[in-house]
Input
Amino acid sequence: MGSNSNRRVWLCLVALCLAGASAGGDLGQLMQLLAQRQHGHVSFVEEHFLHVLDRPVESSGELFYDAPDRLEKRTLKPKPESLVLEHGVITARRGRHTYVLNLSDYPQIVPLIDSIRATLAGDRASLERIFKVTFDGDLDHWKLLLVPSDSTVARSVKQIQIEGARDAIQSVEIQQADGDRSLLTIGPEVGQ
Amino acid sequence: MSRSGVVATLVWAVLAIVAIVILARARYTTDLSAFLPRSPTATQKLLVDQLRDGLASRLIVVAIEGTDPATRARISTAMATRLRSDQQFVSVNNGETASANRDRMFLFSHRYLLSDTVTPERFTVEGLRGAIQDTIDLLASPAGLLTKDLLPHDPTGEMVEIVGQLAGGAAGAPRTVDGVWTSADGKRALLVAQTRALGSDTDGQQRAVEAVRNAFDQAAGQLRPTLLMSGPGVFAVTARANIIKEVTRLSILSTVVIVALLLGVYRSVTALVLGLVPVASGALAGVAAVALGAGVVHGVTLGFGITLIGEAVDYSIYLFIQSQQSGNHDRVGWQRAVWPTIRLGMLTSVCGFASLLPSGFSGLAQLGLYSIGGLVAGALVTRFVLPHWLPRNFSIRDVSPIGVAAARFLARIKGAPVALAVLALAAGVIVYMHRTTLWNRELSALSPVSLADQDLDAQLRVDIRAPDVRYMVVVSGADEQATLHVAEQVGKQLDTLIDQDVIGGFDSPAHYLPSLDLQRTRQASLPPPGELRERLEKAVTGLPVRAERLAPFLTDVETARTQPLLTRKDLDNTSLASGVDALLLHGQRGWTALLPLRASASNPSYIDDRRVRSAVEKVAPGGVTMLDIKGEADTLYSTYLLEAVHLSLAGFAAIVILLLITLRSAARVIRVVIPLALAVLTVAGGFALMGRQLTLLHVIGMLLIVAVGSNYALFFDRRANDAHPGSVPLTLASLLIANLATVASFGILAFSTVPVLTALGSTVAPGALLALIFSALLARHLPTPTQACAAGVS
Output
């Protein structure tokens, strides 16, 4: 009886490997495509659906990206705020205060920010260090599903879904472990 | 030996034994206090206390370099774990998050006592609505992820407020790689340890430095990354070891050179041994004088004292060589003819060194005392003891050929006065042109720390983003509460200045520990439960949050209304304790709060100190001062530079007066002084030309040029005025050899790695040489007294 089920396990494994290989191929291409992009400047609208609040709260502003690890989120509404991620350090300016945070001091927000940064940079190794990455669609319209493989990260994030077309990211939806959710919708390139 | 010889020897022996006993019982120190000025004003006292024992003086910055980031991180973590369990360290930080959570818990449970925004207005319906709206806005930002869970407990955002308050003084933490602090270029792992030992406790600092080194050795194992350490305590330890090493090394080197020189000249071991007697006696007497006069002997004094070897050996050189005159060991003749000149030379040197005695730097005062004791003893031994010890058949090699050659050489030089006048003019012009940049006006110029170490320190400070605390507001008060209260008032003024972008932020002990009054006021701002519930319900109307969700807020406020007020003891076991202890000091004259300022982001290297001063000093006139640490330190140093100039001028004046009294002729005094002044000017010109900046030690060096060089000038003066000038070649030869000995010993000092010794050596060595050359060249040309009346001297 053992031999039969063994064979099925083997078949499954082979199928998984094949599936992985094909996904890896497309994911690899996408990552290469993304990695070629050096700069980005886009507008964004973000909605937060939080269980502590009765209604979603919305913010909007602009995103700036310089390869490979500088990401700035300049929120204009409802309150001006700037948040710069550079070399793993976040500098946040809000009102009178400037806060400097080490990303590593706040493991709960690392995946939220690094998922976007690593995707923008086409940094597959970084992505796969924290998430199990599934590629869907084709290069013209792709979808990445990121599920935390690390148990610490899984405590705060359930999954992240990133959609885009070729080297442009169009939306990032983050589902947190506590059921809260945010949807970042990215507009077209600003300027030039 | 004659009767008088026996008596002299006995007296010498007794005094030598007494000196040895004093030496054996003396206290020696090698800390850096020799380089720290005595401080006259209260602000300067505070400054020097801060330099000696302040928080900054207890920091050791550790960097691990080499291998790969993961290995460095592993070593850093292992070192931190080991050092944290060591009682010698108050705190050890390398970027790991271990202690941060405990701090956060503490801040959160005391937020209504600590937050600046807790006022009665904030808990009105409008106040609550505004604050809650702000907090909801924050939820829409990435920071909201951190504050989301706090909303039900802290809808008014007090925790965010406190974090902002505390972040005000800090320039930010270093970047983290693999979980530990890393330099901006990613090449070094960083760790900061605060020692329990005070900065002035060099032994304690040394133990701490060794503990760090051991922890590194344990953690690094077979891998060999490099360990770098910096900080005031590390400097003190290094400087101490360096001074001891240098003094030993230079003493040996100096002795070897002088012994070789004397052996080469005398060709007699007896003469060599006898010649070193005045030197040894002088050294004994010098240290004994310092031990008696100052109570404690600085290690660096012994370093300065090396120069004495070069000077005291001169006396025996004069005795041995000049008493060889006319071939018949004419010691009585020598005592009559040469001794008065040596005595005068010794007295002029003593005058010069005596001017150091009142110096504000104990190192200099000790140098003066040491040299006076040494020179007097050396000269007296040469005069009263040594002649009795010379064997009947004592003779040294005939050195007159050296003198003959020198005399012939001098005679061949034509036009010396013109050349020297041109040289003087050129030096004068160069010094004048460099007058603005010639002086180094920074206190660090006196630091015994090598430039390479100072550079490393500056680099590591940038790496750990240590706030470069140049400006701080100092609040003094009679007791802890009064001081905190004034600090809070000052804080309000500083907040206004932040809004005006005059400063970027500030740190204050009141951020960690508000005064009891303020805590009470904040508690009183919190409405009773029923009322708060009512106001909250009205406040959230129209907001996307329901009052029921905020029930924990009501409970927390109620707890806070009756929670015991915070005292310093409550902060124990949090890192806030070290914040308060660094900024709130209890001294003999009462309490002091320090509020370090940070420059604004738009102008990171400048703070308009006058605007800050006028804003804060009106809070409590007399009790609040704005301290520009670097400026104050430099002013302090400038004061001492000026003092050194004054002391040197006074010493110079004393020498001139002494010469006037003894020589009883203005013309002769001028003949003696001109070559010396010329030597000083030329050396100053040389430094200016090489772009070297002059410090206090150079000024003292110039005084020594005059003090030492006067010996040579006096001999030439004697030759011109004495009816029985003795053998010219022998006098010249003895001067030449004595000068070589002096130049050699100061020259060796010039190659020291201790900056203060280098400064002294590099000034005196060329200066003494020039003083001899100029004296010799001008001896024939300067008018004698009889001519001077007619010709006049310019």
